[in-house]
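W.,

You were right to be curious about this one. When I first looked at the sequence I had no strong expectations either way, so I just let the prediction run and decided to look at it fresh. Below is the sequence, 315 residues in total, followed by the output.
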Amino acid sequence: MRYDDFRRSDDVEDRRDEGGGGFGGGGGGFGLPMGGGGLGIGTIIVLGLIGYAFGIDPRILIGGAEILTGGGQAPSYQTDRQSSSTSAKRGAPTDEVGSMIAGILGEIDDRWSEIFQASGQNYTGPKVVLFRNATNGGRCGMAQSAMGPFYCPPDRTIFLDTAFFREVETRFRGCSGKSACNFTTAYIIAHEAGHHIQNLLGIIPRVTRLQQQAGSKAEANALQVKVELQADCLSGVWVNREAKKRPNFLEAGDIDAALTTASAIGDDTLQRQATGRVVPDSFTHGSAAQRKQWFMTGYQQGTVQACNTFGGGAL
Protein backbone atom coordinates (compact mmCIF):
# COMPACT_ATOMS: atom_id res chain seq x y z
CA MET A 1 0.00 0.00 0.00
CA ARG A 2 1.30 3.41 -0.97
CA TYR A 3 0.26 6.14 1.43
CA ASP A 4 2.87 8.90 1.07
CA ASP A 5 0.35 11.27 -0.50
CA PHE A 6 -2.48 10.52 1.94
CA ARG A 7 -4.05 13.51 3.67
CA ARG A 8 -3.14 13.33 7.36
CA SER A 9 -6.08 13.78 9.72
CA ASP A 10 -5.71 15.84 12.89
CA ASP A 11 -8.53 13.90 14.59
CA VAL A 12 -6.00 11.72 16.41
CA GLU A 13 -5.32 11.66 20.14
CA ASP A 14 -2.01 9.97 20.95
CA ARG A 15 -1.84 8.49 24.46
CA ARG A 16 0.94 6.00 23.78
CA ASP A 17 3.38 7.84 26.04
CA GLU A 18 1.02 7.33 28.96
CA GLY A 19 1.70 3.59 28.99
CA GLY A 20 -1.19 2.09 30.93
CA GLY A 21 -1.68 -0.56 33.54
CA GLY A 22 -3.48 -3.05 31.35
CA PHE A 23 -2.31 -6.29 29.83
CA GLY A 24 -1.12 -6.99 26.32
CA GLY A 25 -2.38 -9.41 23.77
CA GLY A 26 -4.84 -8.31 21.12
CA GLY A 27 -8.32 -9.79 21.14
CA GLY A 28 -8.21 -10.56 17.46
CA GLY A 29 -11.74 -9.86 16.31
CA PHE A 30 -11.91 -6.06 16.40
CA GLY A 31 -15.24 -4.28 16.26
CA LEU A 32 -17.67 -2.93 18.83
CA PRO A 33 -17.17 -3.29 22.59
CA MET A 34 -18.37 -6.76 23.49
CA GLY A 35 -18.40 -8.58 26.78
CA GLY A 36 -19.00 -7.16 30.23
CA GLY A 37 -22.63 -8.11 30.68
CA GLY A 38 -23.15 -9.57 34.15
CA LEU A 39 -19.43 -10.06 34.83
CA GLY A 40 -17.45 -7.88 37.19
CA ILE A 41 -14.39 -6.03 35.94
CA GLY A 42 -12.18 -8.21 38.13
CA THR A 43 -13.49 -11.35 36.42
CA ILE A 44 -12.95 -9.81 32.99
CA ILE A 45 -9.36 -8.90 33.86
CA VAL A 46 -8.64 -12.41 35.18
CA LEU A 47 -10.10 -13.99 32.04
CA GLY A 48 -8.09 -11.59 29.92
CA LEU A 49 -4.89 -12.57 31.73
CA ILE A 50 -5.66 -16.26 31.30
CA GLY A 51 -6.33 -15.72 27.62
CA TYR A 52 -3.08 -13.85 27.19
CA ALA A 53 -1.05 -16.45 29.10
CA PHE A 54 -2.40 -19.39 27.12
CA GLY A 55 -2.79 -17.65 23.77
CA ILE A 56 -6.60 -17.88 23.87
CA ASP A 57 -8.78 -15.09 22.51
CA PRO A 58 -10.12 -13.41 25.71
CA ARG A 59 -13.46 -12.74 24.01
CA ILE A 60 -14.10 -16.48 23.88
CA LEU A 61 -13.47 -16.89 27.61
CA ILE A 62 -15.54 -13.83 28.49
CA GLY A 63 -18.37 -14.94 26.21
CA GLY A 64 -18.40 -18.41 27.74
CA ALA A 65 -18.47 -16.98 31.26
CA GLU A 66 -21.37 -14.72 30.32
CA ILE A 67 -23.36 -17.70 29.02
CA LEU A 68 -22.79 -19.52 32.30
CA THR A 69 -23.73 -16.50 34.44
CA GLY A 70 -26.61 -15.31 32.24
CA GLY A 71 -24.80 -12.11 31.37
CA GLY A 72 -26.22 -9.25 29.38
CA GLN A 73 -26.82 -9.55 25.67
CA ALA A 74 -26.03 -6.06 24.41
CA PRO A 75 -23.10 -3.70 24.91
CA SER A 76 -23.42 -1.47 27.95
CA TYR A 77 -21.92 1.99 27.97
CA GLN A 78 -20.64 3.84 31.01
CA THR A 79 -21.69 7.46 31.21
CA ASP A 80 -19.48 8.75 34.03
CA ARG A 81 -16.14 8.76 32.20
CA GLN A 82 -14.46 11.34 30.02
CA SER A 83 -12.95 10.15 26.75
CA SER A 84 -10.10 12.65 26.65
CA SER A 85 -6.80 12.74 28.51
CA THR A 86 -5.09 15.94 29.61
CA SER A 87 -1.57 14.70 28.80
CA ALA A 88 -2.38 13.24 25.37
CA LYS A 89 -0.92 14.69 22.18
CA ARG A 90 -3.51 15.83 19.65
CA GLY A 91 -3.08 16.09 15.92
CA ALA A 92 -1.38 13.92 13.33
CA PRO A 93 1.53 11.99 14.93
CA THR A 94 4.96 12.27 13.34
CA ASP A 95 6.27 8.73 13.94
CA GLU A 96 5.94 6.24 11.08
CA VAL A 97 3.05 4.18 12.45
CA GLY A 98 1.15 7.17 13.83
CA SER A 99 1.59 9.13 10.61
CA MET A 100 0.33 6.18 8.55
CA ILE A 101 -2.76 5.83 10.76
CA ALA A 102 -3.46 9.58 10.49
CA GLY A 103 -3.14 9.27 6.70
CA ILE A 104 -5.49 6.29 6.53
CA LEU A 105 -8.03 8.16 8.66
CA GLY A 106 -7.76 11.24 6.45
CA GLU A 107 -8.45 9.23 3.30
CA ILE A 108 -11.30 7.31 4.95
CA ASP A 109 -12.91 10.61 5.92
CA ASP A 110 -12.46 12.08 2.43
CA ARG A 111 -13.97 9.10 0.60
CA TRP A 112 -16.92 8.75 2.98
CA SER A 113 -17.55 12.49 2.80
CA GLU A 114 -17.88 12.08 -0.97
CA ILE A 115 -20.24 9.11 -0.59
CA PHE A 116 -22.45 10.92 1.93
CA GLN A 117 -22.46 14.12 -0.11
CA ALA A 118 -23.62 12.21 -3.20
CA SER A 119 -26.71 11.11 -1.29
CA GLY A 120 -27.36 14.57 0.17
CA GLN A 121 -26.06 13.78 3.66
CA ASN A 122 -23.43 15.37 5.85
CA TYR A 123 -20.51 13.35 7.17
CA THR A 124 -18.44 13.89 10.29
CA GLY A 125 -15.54 11.48 10.78
CA PRO A 126 -14.62 9.52 13.91
CA LYS A 127 -11.87 10.40 16.35
CA VAL A 128 -8.99 7.96 16.85
CA VAL A 129 -7.25 7.33 20.18
CA LEU A 130 -3.86 5.58 20.07
CA PHE A 131 -2.74 3.90 23.29
CA ARG A 132 -0.55 1.19 24.82
CA ASN A 133 -1.87 -1.54 27.12
CA ALA A 134 -4.88 0.31 28.56
CA THR A 135 -6.56 3.70 28.61
CA ASN A 136 -9.78 5.43 29.57
CA GLY A 137 -12.36 4.38 26.99
CA GLY A 138 -14.82 7.15 27.72
CA ARG A 139 -18.43 6.02 27.82
CA CYS A 140 -17.42 2.51 26.72
CA GLY A 141 -15.45 1.82 29.90
CA MET A 142 -11.80 0.81 29.97
CA ALA A 143 -10.01 0.27 26.64
CA GLN A 144 -7.56 -2.63 26.94
CA SER A 145 -5.24 -4.35 24.52
CA ALA A 146 -6.98 -7.70 24.97
CA MET A 147 -10.15 -6.25 23.45
CA GLY A 148 -8.43 -5.54 20.13
CA PRO A 149 -9.27 -2.37 18.19
CA PHE A 150 -12.83 -1.18 18.78
CA TYR A 151 -15.26 1.64 18.06
CA CYS A 152 -17.14 3.38 20.88
CA PRO A 153 -20.51 4.50 19.46
CA PRO A 154 -21.57 7.12 22.07
CA ASP A 155 -18.19 8.89 21.82
CA ARG A 156 -17.79 8.26 18.07
CA THR A 157 -14.21 7.23 18.74
CA ILE A 158 -11.95 4.40 17.52
CA PHE A 159 -9.50 3.00 20.09
CA LEU A 160 -6.30 1.41 18.77
CA ASP A 161 -3.41 -0.17 20.64
CA THR A 162 -0.84 -0.04 17.86
CA ALA A 163 0.83 -3.22 19.18
CA PHE A 164 -2.16 -5.11 17.74
CA PHE A 165 -0.93 -4.51 14.22
CA ARG A 166 2.33 -6.34 15.05
CA GLU A 167 0.31 -9.22 16.48
CA VAL A 168 -1.65 -9.49 13.23
CA GLU A 169 1.64 -10.29 11.54
CA THR A 170 3.32 -12.40 14.22
CA ARG A 171 0.53 -14.13 16.13
CA PHE A 172 -2.36 -14.27 13.68
CA ARG A 173 -0.19 -14.58 10.54
CA GLY A 174 -2.49 -12.07 8.88
CA CYS A 175 0.08 -10.54 6.55
CA SER A 176 3.67 -10.84 5.40
CA GLY A 177 5.89 -7.98 4.27
CA LYS A 178 5.75 -4.27 5.00
CA SER A 179 3.41 -3.24 2.19
CA ALA A 180 0.89 -6.02 2.83
CA CYS A 181 0.94 -5.41 6.58
CA ASN A 182 0.41 -1.69 6.01
CA PHE A 183 -2.67 -2.50 3.95
CA THR A 184 -3.88 -4.87 6.65
CA THR A 185 -3.67 -1.95 9.07
CA ALA A 186 -5.77 0.11 6.67
CA TYR A 187 -8.34 -2.70 6.40
CA ILE A 188 -8.65 -2.91 10.19
CA ILE A 189 -9.06 0.86 10.60
CA ALA A 190 -11.55 0.94 7.72
CA HIS A 191 -13.53 -1.81 9.50
CA GLU A 192 -13.75 0.35 12.62
CA ALA A 193 -14.73 3.32 10.47
CA GLY A 194 -17.44 1.05 9.06
CA HIS A 195 -18.94 0.92 12.55
CA HIS A 196 -18.88 4.72 12.57
CA ILE A 197 -20.83 4.73 9.30
CA GLN A 198 -23.34 2.33 10.86
CA ASN A 199 -23.64 4.67 13.83
CA LEU A 200 -24.26 7.70 11.62
CA LEU A 201 -26.91 5.78 9.66
CA GLY A 202 -28.70 4.70 12.84
CA ILE A 203 -27.94 1.00 12.35
CA ILE A 204 -26.08 0.48 15.63
CA PRO A 205 -28.84 2.01 17.83
CA ARG A 206 -31.47 -0.12 16.09
CA VAL A 207 -29.43 -3.32 16.47
CA THR A 208 -28.73 -2.54 20.13
CA ARG A 209 -32.46 -2.31 20.78
CA LEU A 210 -33.03 -5.60 18.99
CA GLN A 211 -30.28 -7.23 21.04
CA GLN A 212 -31.91 -6.04 24.24
CA GLN A 213 -35.18 -7.63 23.08
CA ALA A 214 -33.50 -10.87 21.96
CA GLY A 215 -34.76 -14.03 23.58
CA SER A 216 -31.35 -15.68 23.82
CA LYS A 217 -27.63 -15.05 23.78
CA ALA A 218 -27.39 -16.87 20.42
CA GLU A 219 -29.99 -14.51 18.89
CA ALA A 220 -28.14 -11.45 20.18
CA ASN A 221 -24.84 -12.85 18.88
CA ALA A 222 -26.37 -13.44 15.43
CA LEU A 223 -27.31 -9.75 15.24
CA GLN A 224 -23.78 -8.78 16.24
CA VAL A 225 -22.34 -10.99 13.49
CA LYS A 226 -24.43 -9.09 10.92
CA VAL A 227 -23.10 -5.79 12.28
CA GLU A 228 -19.49 -6.97 12.05
CA LEU A 229 -19.85 -8.44 8.55
CA GLN A 230 -21.42 -5.22 7.36
CA ALA A 231 -18.41 -3.31 8.75
CA ASP A 232 -16.15 -5.68 6.78
CA CYS A 233 -18.17 -4.90 3.66
CA LEU A 234 -18.01 -1.15 4.28
CA SER A 235 -14.24 -1.39 4.64
CA GLY A 236 -14.23 -2.97 1.19
CA VAL A 237 -16.31 -0.07 -0.14
CA TRP A 238 -13.64 2.36 1.08
CA VAL A 239 -10.86 0.34 -0.59
CA ASN A 240 -12.85 0.40 -3.84
CA ARG A 241 -13.31 4.17 -3.74
CA GLU A 242 -9.72 4.84 -2.67
CA ALA A 243 -8.34 2.68 -5.48
CA LYS A 244 -10.40 4.66 -8.00
CA LYS A 245 -9.19 7.96 -6.53
CA ARG A 246 -5.56 6.86 -6.34
CA PRO A 247 -4.79 4.18 -8.98
CA ASN A 248 -1.36 3.51 -7.42
CA PHE A 249 -2.81 3.01 -3.93
CA LEU A 250 -2.91 -0.80 -4.04
CA GLU A 251 0.19 -2.94 -4.55
CA ALA A 252 0.56 -6.62 -5.38
CA GLY A 253 -0.54 -8.81 -2.49
CA ASP A 254 -2.53 -6.14 -0.63
CA ILE A 255 -6.01 -7.61 -1.20
CA ASP A 256 -4.69 -11.11 -0.45
CA ALA A 257 -3.31 -9.77 2.85
CA ALA A 258 -6.72 -8.37 3.83
CA LEU A 259 -8.37 -11.70 3.00
CA THR A 260 -5.72 -13.59 4.98
CA THR A 261 -6.36 -11.34 7.96
CA ALA A 262 -10.12 -11.75 7.66
CA SER A 263 -9.64 -15.51 7.66
CA ALA A 264 -7.18 -15.50 10.56
CA ILE A 265 -9.57 -13.60 12.85
CA GLY A 266 -12.77 -15.37 11.89
CA ASP A 267 -14.65 -16.70 14.92
CA ASP A 268 -14.35 -20.29 13.73
CA THR A 269 -10.58 -19.96 13.27
CA LEU A 270 -10.08 -18.42 16.72
CA GLN A 271 -12.34 -20.96 18.44
CA ARG A 272 -10.66 -23.90 16.72
CA GLN A 273 -7.24 -22.63 17.81
CA ALA A 274 -8.41 -22.00 21.38
CA THR A 275 -10.60 -25.01 22.14
CA GLY A 276 -10.35 -27.41 19.20
CA ARG A 277 -14.04 -27.02 18.37
CA VAL A 278 -16.38 -24.48 16.79
CA VAL A 279 -19.60 -23.19 18.37
CA PRO A 280 -21.47 -21.11 15.76
CA ASP A 281 -24.07 -19.84 18.28
CA SER A 282 -21.26 -18.06 20.12
CA PHE A 283 -19.95 -16.25 17.02
CA THR A 284 -19.83 -12.46 17.38
CA HIS A 285 -17.84 -11.47 14.27
CA GLY A 286 -18.55 -14.14 11.66
CA SER A 287 -16.67 -17.08 10.20
CA ALA A 288 -13.50 -16.76 8.14
CA ALA A 289 -15.45 -17.44 4.94
CA GLN A 290 -18.12 -14.87 5.80
CA ARG A 291 -15.60 -12.15 6.61
CA LYS A 292 -13.74 -12.71 3.35
CA GLN A 293 -16.99 -12.83 1.37
CA TRP A 294 -18.34 -9.54 2.71
CA PHE A 295 -15.08 -7.64 2.38
CA MET A 296 -14.88 -8.72 -1.25
CA THR A 297 -18.52 -7.78 -1.84
CA GLY A 298 -17.80 -4.23 -0.70
CA TYR A 299 -14.53 -4.09 -2.63
CA GLN A 300 -15.98 -5.38 -5.88
CA GLN A 301 -19.25 -3.44 -5.86
CA GLY A 302 -18.18 -0.27 -4.05
CA THR A 303 -21.61 0.74 -2.79
CA VAL A 304 -23.26 0.94 0.62
CA GLN A 305 -26.33 -0.76 -0.84
CA ALA A 306 -24.26 -3.89 -1.53
CA CYS A 307 -23.55 -4.23 2.19
CA ASN A 308 -27.00 -5.28 3.37
CA THR A 309 -26.02 -8.15 5.66
CA PHE A 310 -29.46 -7.87 7.30
CA GLY A 311 -31.38 -8.78 4.14
CA GLY A 312 -33.21 -12.08 3.78
CA GLY A 313 -30.75 -14.87 3.11
CA ALA A 314 -27.77 -12.50 3.33
CA LEU A 315 -26.02 -14.73 5.83
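Here's what jumped out at me. Residues 12-306 form one domain. And, maybe more interesting for your project: The CA atoms of residues 78 and 224 lie 20 Å apart.

Coffee later to discuss?

I.
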